[in-house]
Amino acid sequence: MMISLRFLVLGAAGMLVASPVIGQRPDNQILPRSIELQQQGEAQLAAGKLMEAGNLLETSVAVDPRNRSAFVDLARVAKQQKLFGKAIKLANEALELEPNDLDAIEVQGEAMVELGAIPRAKENLAKLQKLCAANCRQVASLSASISRGPAVASVTPPDGPKKD
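Predicted structure:
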């Protein structure tokens, strides 16, 4: 009697734990509000309004943390703000959701170039070339970034202290 009561309690607990999982949405169904906010953020990014774009995209990710395109767009915003470490981290968030996301690999590689991590950027380029057989804009863009090198390193330092 005691053993069957334990099994009954364990079975009931198992049903309670499993029931929320049954009602969850599949990973490929992003909430429409998140997509709407992302599109608004993309428009702000295209207009050069980085702060507004970042706010909208962060809200998009908060609404639905599975929106990997919003993570990629946030990485683009961070890259344009010269926050290359943040751009790499945000691209990693997208790559955790989809390891073969071409845009995330590209943005991450470009941010690595700007930090001077050329060997790691070349690893991203090799991965892109493997995933994208022919005429891939991500391959062309990352390849051009690697060829150009980091923009930060190309800035010449001032000629010493200013004299009044």
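Summary: Confidence is low (pLDDT under 50) at residues 17-25.
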